[in-house]
Design goal:
single chain; 10 helices; TIM Barrel; 44% helix; six-stranded mixed sheet; two-stranded antiparallel sheet; globular; alpha/beta
Length: 261
Amino acid sequence: MAAAKALGLDAIAITDHDTFSGYDQALSLAREAGIELVCGIELSTKLILPDRPRGKSVHLLGYFMKGPSPEFLAWLGGLQQSRRERNEALALKLQSMGLAITIEEVNALGRSMAGRPHFAKLMVQKGYVSTLQEAFDKFLDESAQAYVERQEPTLGEGIRRILDGGGLPSLAHPVRLGKRVPAQEEDVIRQMCKMGLRALEAWHSDHPSREQERYEWLARRYDLVATGGSDFHGDAKPGVELGTGRNGNVNVSKKVLDRLR
């Protein structure tokens, strides 16, 4: 919150994976700093595609202007348990490959919401890899040798849960859908709209200006709210700055928040 205030940001959303605890901790600090804090979350979901019968991981943002419902919070508890079980299986798999990584060490770094970034950080600390990206490329990404699937909701269920819980679902960083043929990408987004998608993240650190313009156009075409964010992760994402993204490529107007509301 201090960094957001120093940058002159009017508003900020905390959209951690599977938890609102960061938002809860930041709320009083945001008020003290005079910054509007938006309650949000990011969910990992599975989208079943003809070329990906096991499903492709798609990240879904949820923005809750009035806070999530008790029913949504209860459902979220099940996702958190699934995350813990995946972490335990991942630690065992890495140990079987000769990497001395324990679940206790991972939990010490990530506390209640440990995940793959904390595994990656430990690998760097112990000299198994040189960078966080190398840890993902070699061991942790979906196509890497140590990847362990977790029980994730389908994209359709994630959208429904957010809507029923009082939130607004937005597709996070659509460039990561990996559809380099524009017509194919548009077709997937069209299918998501039929599932109830309400918004599309047009402005993101991974989106060059041409991509941002395309996602703005797609949002208008399918009557979606265009959302945006730097996707700032601190040291876990070198080169991505709070509020401005990568080399200043993100500049989200306060009008975007007004349209969301």
